[in-house]
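assembly run, all chains below
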Amino acid sequence: MRPIKIGLFGLGVVGSGIVEIIGRARNAHAEIRRICVRDITKKRAVEVDPALLTDNAADIFGDPSINLIVEVVDNPDASYRIVTEALRRGIPVVSGSKAMIARHLPELIELQRRHNTALLYDASACGSIPVIRNLEEYYDNDLLLEVKGILNGSSNYILSRVFDHGEDYGAALRKAQELGFAESDPTFDIEGFDSLFKLIIITVHALGVYVAPDSIFTYGISTIHDSDIRYAREKRVKIKLVAQVVKVSDERFTMFVMPEFVSPSKYIYSVDDEYNGVVIRGECYDRQFMFGKGAGSLPTASSILSDVMARLHGYRYEYKKMGFAGRPAFTEDVPLRVYVRYGATAGVRDLPWLAVREQYFSESGNYIIGDIRLADLHASRPLLSAQDVFLAHIPLFFTDRDN
Amino acid sequence: MRPIKIGLFGLGVVGSGIVEIIGRARNAHAEIRRICVRDITKKRAVEVDPALLTDNAADIFGDPSINLIVEVVDNPDASYRIVTEALRRGIPVVSGSKAMIARHLPELIELQRRHNTALLYDASACGSIPVIRNLEEYYDNDLLLEVKGILNGSSNYILSRVFDHGEDYGAALRKAQELGFAESDPTFDIEGFDSLFKLIIITVHALGVYVAPDSIFTYGISTIHDSDIRYAREKRVKIKLVAQVVKVSDERFTMFVMPEFVSPSKYIYSVDDEYNGVVIRGECYDRQFMFGKGAGSLPTASSILSDVMARLHGYRYEYKKMGFAGRPAFTEDVPLRVYVRYGATAGVRDLPWLAVREQYFSESGNYIIGDIRLADLHASRPLLSAQDVFLAHIPLFFTDRDN
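ok done. output:
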């Protein structure tokens, strides 16, 4: 068991947490040898020996004593360069950059194979909840039917503030940013992309299939309106931003990110504030629910520490399910029931509805509840992006009972 | 990757589930070669090729093609003989016998080391929830502070029926047995021993310390009375049978199994029926909650399948934390707040209370709420076992906020 000597890239919110946590974990056998930052003169949230700091990546890549690179920089391009460079040199990497990983996962898997090294990224999906590792190691058979959850702490925090505390959306967003829950580009959180990236990574480990971000329907919460909240309250449901991957038959699965009306009987109903919650459904164990802090410096850093410790024992993802026979294929040819609220935007009524269940018109706004194919919803994405339109999923078709 | 050829001991509730699940998991690369049962003529819940059945253990131990033994017999002594025999022969074993494992774990760890083989038992604690593997692999550092949960599906089912549905205790117990949740000896479930055995196993993987069953205070639900349920309802709490291991300082931890008044803000409040729920608390990630089916044929069998699949990749528990520096020591020198309801039994008032907070006397029964050292409670165990006494923990000292 060789002690871990870490070269750390990035000393922001998560990087500072890593420095603090590695200091606390007495039995971790891990030590930070060098920290690469953009600006070595910048004031940091955590006390660090100045001799550890460098702004030259070569000081890490060229240090033969470093046997693990941990990368938590807040820039997908830089993250891509660091991770691929490390893998090519055969140095194992722990990364928290879900955007980068979700875009480049097939190449990153290939690089790990070719250079016989490891990339771990449990921290990239759901902060402190060990979703990836459990999907890879524990739910490592073909009994899995569905993974569904609240994967973004920041948007969930905002929805909780707006929904449960009657706060203003903008004020809630600012508070999320102050608390360090929000990505530096908040559209990532709010428009559902952060959830999407995590869902893509989860799907690789859940079903063994990679689907590129552009192929997946993603709808966020930025156009949510008082009337949507009022409607949901009247129906005694909450609106949550939910990501899901579901097997719709033995041969096919679908996935999407969408606000959802969540009834009190569902596990994810009680996932509030910055928490994440994931439901894993399988053929024999029914539903399992995992719940924990999905954002913030120390929760994310503690997840990074788990990846670091896993390297002590040479752990790597095997991507077992990618080799499974009869892997299901991605489809958007599935019916969904949705609520679409709109104002002046024409065209919502002319969507290719399979069935319209309810229509409501008023001076202050209108809505339709109806059934529509996910593929048709996806094709109508520009229309749905109008500022006066809000879309929410009403779960119905996939679930015969509570989840 | 060598396909797994299983020798199965036991074809009861769980064994039948294993046969069914292995048949369904197409990519498991696992096959059952032989099944050893007490009575090969007995009618089974699952259809099995009669040629697989044997009543002679030597047919499994002597078959060189068998590379994994799965043991789900319902008898701790037989289980001990099978597991130790397999380990001595260097054959890896998956076992679901928590009573046996909790009693013999130090010897079983030593046997694994000496014969360089593996014993996996994730199925033994919390059915389908991957608690052991996560404590061992993911929470594998010294930031862990507490593991607390509802570990027994059967007693939880009974409490749910009695508490939420106003059913009679005896009727609820019979229903639990009919549904296959209860152990064949129901006192295991109801007196807290099943929870205790799981807690002992969890503690080895949580803190790296083994504590023998006889040293741990264990109190069940068999003496619960209408008046206790009425009292809890008035206070808007539920009574749950809770097992917990808690670090009370850097150097010391305590553990016990006891009914507990659980308030609605706690994660485990909503763990009802045969479900299990576990809260893992750490220094940096705060609280994580895992929830799933803790009893029943298929959920337990799916957990066994995860252990079987882990053997495909040569997985074994490393018992890392047993080698940690500064492991905490077990103590019962901690104050607890408890509710003790009693009828004619004298002596409850004379317990060595640190402080009495409330006393209530009535024609139909009495109770005291007060603070007492766990060691003193343990020393008074015979008194507390009287048929007219019921004890419940009021959590207070360990938790500064919700869990």
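The CA atoms of residues 219 and 258 of chain B lie 5 Å apart.

The two ends of chain B are 42 Å apart (CA to CA).

not gonna interpret more than that til we talk
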